[in-house]
Amino acid sequence: MTAVQSFDVAVLGAGLAGRLSAWHLVRAGVRVALIERGGPDGSGSAAHVAAAMLAPLAESAIAERRIVDLGIASVDLWRTWLKELPEPVFFQEDGTLVVWHARDRSEVSLFTNRMRAVAPPELVQQRLRALDGKGVADVEPELAGRFGQGLLLQGEGQLDNRGAMRALLACAISEGLHCIWEAGEVEASSLPALGIRANVVLDCRGLGARTAWAEPEDENGRALPGLRGLRGEVVRVHAPDVKLHRPVRLLHPRYPIYIAPKPNDLYVIGATEIESEDESPMSVRSALELLSAAHSLHPAFGEARVLELNVQRRPTRPDHLPAIRVDQATRVVRVNGLYRHGWLIAPAVTEAACHVVRAMLEDDPAAHAVPDALRWPGMIQPVREVASLASGALADIGTGMLH
Q1: Arithmetic mean of pLDDT, 77-84
Q2: pTM
């Protein structure tokens, strides 16, 4: 018989949201168990393959104002939180350089017009700087003579995603976090079988929680999709002959790409998402497009060594915005929908979720109405998971094993 251990909170999923939440809670003195279907390296998560760019202004060209605001708040949190980790994590705020080839100059007005329409005016005024050819060369000497114009989005940043994942976990474990790895598919109802009793469950499983995020049925009795995966493709290369100092975005009408330099001459090259649930390996066409675009930015990428061709699906809600669902009857809080913005917005989203969890631990009947609910209206949603209870997803609630 499995011995039962009691915790204040069980966090399901050890991707970025799960690790941030567990770290945040244990440092507040909460007894936390972290349960993950895979291993501690996090290689099965979208966060593991991402470029981890912290660029709210750049993202405003393709995102909603809510994402920009969450991003601004989250960058401030990253700046503080990373200093509190016991091991250093690469983090910079040296801006984002945006460039384009002459044939694609029409993309510039689309990019800047969208930024001005979505981002706070003061952010655009403070950060957007137009560059001529000399200005591009001053910012990135390696690109001298290659681009006649560019944009510098000052103050934008990036971090080392894998280093941050390791450091967050190591710090949380040193503070008393209990971890269960290789747990397979897990839900609140399966915790007793793992020997876990928890006061509150915080579900951060991403696409692993798809059934819990099903929307109401349509007029034909079909469940509407509440969560879907969007395919992202990322290449990691070692390019010691390329010396870029900040993330570069290359505008293109079909596949605008980003190139993010990391420590030790590593570069992460990616593009916007593909509307597909396919998780098969990267196609030759996608690899050629990404690598050809990088080569067009700097010819020395032609001698780079390809280390990884990665594919992941990002958990995405129909409105492309994150949400926190709070079911006080079953004492389950669910965080999801970070989409392609995980590293940009996760601190603010998980901070709000942890505030809800701590209010529930204090038996606050209005835990869903923490101050974050006013700061981020609509993101924290009180629900009653009748469908989940009917399907048996939380069938053990009444046994007293999960309370």
Answers
A1: 98
A2: 0.93
